[in-house]
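Researcher: Re-running this chain for the archive, since the previous output was lost when a drive failed. Same request as before.
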Amino acid sequence: MFEQTFKNIDDILRKDAGCSSELDYVEQTSWVLFLKYLDDLEKDKLAAAELSGKPYSTIIDTEYKWENWASPKNKDGKLDHHIAVGGDDLKDFVDHKLFPYLKRFKTQANSPDTIEYKIGEIFSELKNKIQSGYNMREVINLIDELRFRSHKDKHEMSFLYEGKIQNMGNAGRNGGEYYTPRALIKTIVKAVAPEIGNTIYDGAVGSAGFLCEAFEYLMKSKNLSTSDMAVLQKKTFYGKEKKSLAYVIGIMNMILHGIEAPNIIHTNTLSENISDIEEKDRYDVILANPPFGGKERKEAQQNFPIKTGETAFLFLQHFIKSLKAGGKAGIVIKNTFLSNTDNASSSLRKTLLESCNLHTVLDLPGGVFQGAGVKTV
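Model: Regenerated structure tokens:
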């Protein structure tokens, strides 16, 4: 059902003047999906609070609740066409009321590790590109039929969302930017074998595939206590991402996998000077596929002892410095790193051998990254 719904939504967005690519389809589907997800989450929390006799105050004000603006129902449980807005009225409400309201959450939230803060961040980064209110109404009606209540629903949804991210990567300027193949991520996570209580970090988080997979791995690792679950939710996964769209999609992907308020920061990791990294900033586990072939500006290169324009080599220095003593990392890098004779490559190899306990170099088959055409290790 989810799969057909996604196809139908893409067909509607293709007809819309404001959406021109796979990237737009994912971005626009994401914000509507997120609000529906949030509504289901609130209903679950309210039901749980009622069962335990505890009070629960909802996050979203009445006027902005999904059932009031997106999908008001009549007594038969069908969409009430007398109340449901469409066309220009719907577009005006979304652009001039809903988005500004949700954006304000960022300044009003108690701390960055709350879902309120994440709502504010997402709607500060995104804007509605769907130009026709009639198309928007059709998209909303389709998403309203989706359910996120059971674990099975969420699992299926996260799997399909991953598929959309993969298509977006293949359609984007370079395939690897958004999507690292799931089989590769699983292999790396299994080899690194994180444990409950470890802090896990990806400084080039993209669509958060590594963090989602590490979460799945840890969920299955043993019978989890309530305190284990709390540690997984709040104190385990950390990420940084420079690009707005990838940042939003990464947060969305983690939320769909069941991490309510992901600790992902929207920032350029390479703008931090690595000599400022202290023990408290270090992590037990690092999992990453940093962007290769990018060129960082001279100012950013000043933050690193080994100067190079190659982004992946700067990230590698950042990761080495960000790893706790005794920590473990699994990082994807271009295979030319092993053979290039330039100063940066040679110095980095030396650093890796002298200051780290280099365990394995796994040569990945060509074509692992569709469309990128790069050999990796």
